[in-house]
Design a protein that fits this description.
With 135 residues, the chain is an alpha+beta fold. The chain has a single domain, classed as Beta-Lactamase, CATH 3.30.450.30. 42% of the residues lie in helices and 26% in strands. A 5-stranded antiparallel sheet has the order 2-1-5-4-3, with helices on both faces. α1 runs antiparallel to α4 and α2 packs parallel to α3. The longest helix has 17 residues. The radius of gyration is 15 Å and the shape is globular. The mean pLDDT is 91.
Length: 135
């Protein structure tokens, strides 16, 4: 299967999922996207850039550094504190998941707000190994 078809399968398996995108946060590029509606490319590119900011903006880097220091951990290249971030907006649930095999890649799933959050999160987690296998 290709990354695009794997994302399509993931969208279908996650409750009320309306979009999925795979973002390279080191470059801010959207590697693949599947949506049930069409969206302007500019919007999708902004989502990719915002995802990169969310995971490696200067304040996030500072927080990670403080947590490592507080726990007595060494600064390690590639070690990150934030793995999953959930954002609830007016009508949607946004699930951001850092890859385990490829920590510079973040998967974004967008579901309707009426979705069961626990089920959406569980199905999103189950989809990640298959998505990372396509890279």
């Amino acid at each position: 299967m290709s990354l695009d078809s794997t994302l399509q399968h993931s969208v279908a398996s996650i409750p009320e999922c309306v979009a999925a995108g795979y973002v390279d946060i080191s470059s801010g590029m959207l590697l693949s996207v599947k949506t049930v509606d069409s969206h302007p490319r500019e919007v999708l590119d902004l989502v990719a850039a915002a995802t990169a900011d969310l995971y490696q903006g200067p304040n996030i880097r500072s927080i990670e550094q403080m947590f490592r220091r507080a726990r007595g951990l060494q600064e390690q290249e590639g070690a990150h504190y934030f793995q999953e971030i959930i954002v609830n907006s007016e009508n949607l649930i946004h699930i951001f998941m850092r890859g385990k095999r490829y920590p510079d890649y973040v998967m974004v799933f967008v579901c309707r707000r009426t979705a069961n959050l626990g089920m959406a999160l569980t199905r999103s987690r189950l989809a990640m190994p298959g998505i990372e296998a396509e890279i």
